[in-house]
Protein 1
Amino acid sequence: MFSYTTAIVVIVLGGILIFWLMRNRNKAKRPQPTVDARNDPQKTVIPRDKHPVSRRNISDNALKVINRLNSQGYEAYLVGGCVRDLYLDLHPKDFDVATNASPEEVRKLFRNSRLIGRRFKLVHVLFGREMIEVATFRAQHEQHHGQDKSHHSESGRILRDNVYGTMEDDAMRRDFTVNALYYDGRDFSVVDFCNGVDDIRTGTLRLIGDPVTRYHEDPVRMLRAIRFAAKLNFTMAPETEQPVRELGHLLRDIPSARLFDEILKLLQSGHGVRTFELLREYQLFAPLFPATDHSLNEALAQQDQQTPALIIESLKSTDRRVKQHRPVTPAFLFAALLWSPMKRLAQELMDQGIPPIPAFQQAAMTVITNQCHHTSIPRRFSMMVRDIWDLQARLERRQPKLIESLMEHPKFRAAYDFLVLREQSGENLSGAGQWWTDIQEVDDHGRFSMVRELSSQIASQGAQKKPGIKRRRRRRKPHSPDSGND
């Protein structure tokens, strides 16, 4: 009986062994799928002595946030542009944190915080004027998670992105390899999933994943590519660069308010001239400023350099002010960018018989309204643009009786700066820009002398225009003694 049972056990075990061997043999013969590094990130941990990121250059408040999250058992890292800039020995403006804590959990940990966003839910932790942005690790949208978490438009643009995942998932959801670097405050290491450090060393801007898909998910990534290429002096990788010229039309689907914010980042970063050149080169300027783009093309076709020169001069001025840590206003840039289409429309209206002042006012309103369909301009800036434009004619005319009131106008300085830029770009303003420069540099006596001399010039010019013409005395109608009785 014992031998019979043993035989059965041996047979069963032998069958199982044969089945296992055959299964593994067949599995070994199957072709293995190719591993795509974009979908299977290779985690590289760079220890402190192998990278240049120092705690001395990191915001104390950002360190407080990641330390608090870590102490409560959560993962938390500095991530993105701040780590990239520290690697390049630049000074980051903002410090962002990525964590596996949900937005609601982060909100509970920090009293000085607020939840923001529906499309992309975030937490802002406030320390006086400094704000640390905390985002939960994002994941891919390959599965259906419900429209409250994941939602795409017909063109593929992400309308809602609240699908959470792991740190590796988060790295794959970032835009460029150089922005997928994580700083760990626990051991001071840098974690790299996408060979971002190598791209920093070679000065390469490379999109993570399929570029066409990623640009469709968020067309603003094309503008970010331009901004980083200009700011960091990087070269776009061929596969990142190639689709941009063909997909500029996708920017028309982006809310105009968001595009206004992106324009400020593009043109007020201290690298406005280079950014403008790249926008034109990659055909992304037209979706943002269609009327200006048309004026530029028309001017270049006629070999007229004034229109591009005014824009370049205004961007140079803005770049200088940014580098000197002086304030800049979007109104000044928009006044320069929209000046040419406004003047062209005003001339068309005058050709139709509308007087100059109403023509300029109507043209200004029309051009600004049309521009707001593409990039919204907050009212406080659009009103300033109109003030700058309205003062141009008065500054050109230099009427002696209005000199003092013009200099006291709250927008005089901006209008004067714009007048000087117009003169520098080649417009013939009869020396008005230099005259206003001189009158601001003299004392009260010198100012009085300049105004009196201006009055004499205007009087002599008027006399030269009408030589020998005397004013005819009007003949009085004979007085009728009975006229008062009727």
Protein 2
Amino acid sequence: MTERLAQILADSFFKILIPGITVTIPLTVLSFSIALVIAVAVALVQFAQVPVLTKLARLYIWIIRGTPILVQLFVVFYGLPGVGILIEPFPAAVLVFSINEGAYGAETIRAALESVPKGQLEAGQCVGMTYMQIMRRIILPQALRTAFPTLANSLIAMVKDTSLAANITVTEMFMTTQRIVARTYEPLALYLEVGLVYLLFCTVLTRVQAWGEKMLNRRGAQRS
């Protein structure tokens, strides 16, 4: 029994790891990259207090943060075909994860923007810089430095959240594990194994986060 289980775990490790590298990681990176663009845009709209756009941004954040991501996945993948909109599993997952994380990231970046002293905005105006130049060269770089740890934590959380994409038939490593479990009837060992693979990915990202924070702190110290 022990030899059989060891053989199953050995055979399944790379069968789980490969979808993790080819599906889970690309899904995470692509979704998070798009989410950052959404988050920065929504945060800037709120920071600038554009009347109509600010209300739309708050509505977007309210809806997305107030509904479970699993429900959002089901609405996009299983619900939209009812009105004639068909989206393949992987693009549907990217769309949902991007929109979901964009709402949370927008609040993180908005708070970071508001933490930058207002005097720096006024100083930029005094030297003749336009609003967009001030945001791009002065305010946004400082805000992103402040938001980096929280955004990095969100990225790590997204790696784990991608397991929910199995519910819309994305063949990432959790769905692969489920298929192996259905064939071998060893749920405990195999789910622990895929958990260790997730832990491995998140540990690497945690180290990258620590390195990034050191680099940003060093640059901040040099500028000051």
Protein 3
Amino acid sequence: MGSKRQSSASIAVVIPSRNDAEMLAVCLSHLALQSRQADEIIVVDNGSTDNTAAVCATAGVRRIYWPPPGVAGASARGFDAASSSILARIDADSRPAPDWLVRIETDLAHAGPLALVTGPGDFYGGPKLVCWLGKTFYLGGYLHVVGYLLGHPPVFGSNYAMTAGVWERIGKSVTRDVPDVHDDLEVSYLLRPDMAVRYDPELRMPVSARPFETWGSLGRRLVMAWRTFGHLFASERPLQRRRSRIKWVRAQE
């Protein structure tokens, strides 16, 4: 993975992947070009039947085989296995810019021991109009609507990082055995009032536009979001959650 910069922080990058060997190879090549190299790169192979294992071996990254279906469980398995002080998360179709890890480290350096950072996505591989609509309405709606509901920015699953302290607090509550759960939405919902979320508009991440290839693929994601909310609301009502955060923030002023 190349030379590592001297730093008080260490960074693990977790990548859940299922039958995405070709895109994963491109993603890992982008990570190899980081100006600040990752201390750990963990690919969680979510039951792939393609040459994912060979791609990981060629890139010299750690591969964990995790066959139970579902990105939430796969992501959690990767975070559990990491030993770094910062845990970053992308997808196999992510293409991080060379300064991505530097920016993450900088953003979290002054954010406190219980903090997360996230940024926007830029879609590639589809018609320009579709990519613009995805960025503006799909991700934009997620940021604003869910952000209002939570009282803080939600994290974007293809582009976020958190301190290990956050995972230590919420990791045991993350769903690991339900396939239809959006892991980023669940992580965002599980955050407690004393955990800060920084939204960095310059922490951009190119991701594939394939969720918008068909109405069916987009519909499946929206259904997953609905089911994820239903799962989360059962344990803590949204207005109750929002009031708790607002009350805590005001008490700190």
Protein 4
Amino acid sequence: MKLKSRRKLVNYVNILDQPVRFNPFLFSRAFFLWALLGIMGGLIAGIYWIVLEIVIGILGQFEGWLVIPTMAFSGFLAGLIIHFIGDPGEISLIVNNIRFNKGKLDPKRNPSMILSSLLCVGSGGSLGPEAPLVQVTGSTGTWLGKVFRLKGEELRSMSIAGMAAGFTALFGAPLGGSLFALEILHHKHIVQYYKAITPALVSSLFSYMVFAIIISLGLGAIWEVPVYEYEGLFDFGLAVLYGIIAAAIGWYFIYFTRGFKKLFEWKPLPIYLKMLIGGILLGCISFVFPITRYFSHHEVNELLNTPFTLSMLLAILFFKITAISITVTSGWRGGFIIPMFFVGATLGLIINELFPDINASLAIICCMAAINSTVTRTPMSTTILIATLTGFTYLIPILFASLTGYFLAPKIPFIKSQLKEEKEE
């Protein structure tokens, strides 16, 4: 039976390999492959999101001082999963595999990534589901490419398209998600991977459509940033100024995180003990500052709609950065893009508290864009993502801030695999 099934699959692949006849358009059978990948990515993202909300609903009931043992136990349990099932890796490994492993992402890492990230994100870690989704949907692209006997750049493009499907499902921005999947590989390699942009866009659109249907996601902004009114050319200068300030905070975050990394690596410990310690520290921060708990998808609106004092905003900024750093370095799984947007929004509110007469919306938006560009080196996609998530229709100030953060980023990137210039296979 297995041999017959394999023969049927080979015959089906051979049919797809045949040239398209009587087709005067660019439209081809490859479109169906990209669309299929997007549908699969949307289904995966939708199911993951539903399960994540269930986990958050269960673990989120433990509040007050109970958040400390809850997060400690969750970290310990996630560490045991990684210890016994295998290390799923982080975003650096994904970038490395796309660039130096013929574009292949290993699906065998998915069970460990899914289970550990659900516990880490669901219990309140300061990392989001974007990295787990990108690993799973990207590896799905690799698997699908292998099924249809794709090789070389075609296989790499399928992996990138899968990554784009994961990004898009979470952010709800097909164009931004597609560009992010290429841009995070490192700016020097965007041109090299330009062939993947169309597969990524098609996959992203279908992923977004399926994900939106599953979770009843509507069109429009999800973060309620104050309305912006253009006040003249001076706004562009302010955008650059906010970008400089946010880049400085980005530098602080990067080197602060490296300090925590050295601390956790000072004495070799099993992953489950490191994650247990990380959970205790994160629980203590969440107990004192509840708004720093979780990956900030919903907390951004809480931050924007609550009249915090200047001293409280400064405390939130410091402890959110600390929480992200601990989450990253203690082995907890997840992505740091949305948490960095939260940090940028907090910084913008602080600037507005110091200078009440400025346009608060411009300060918030520019700080969000610049700090993420400083950390991830993705100015183009960051601009589109911020505009989509906030409904901010003036792209130029965001782009000014994003490019400022990008060009002022430290030479050694936060995602170290972006630096490597090894010979690609």
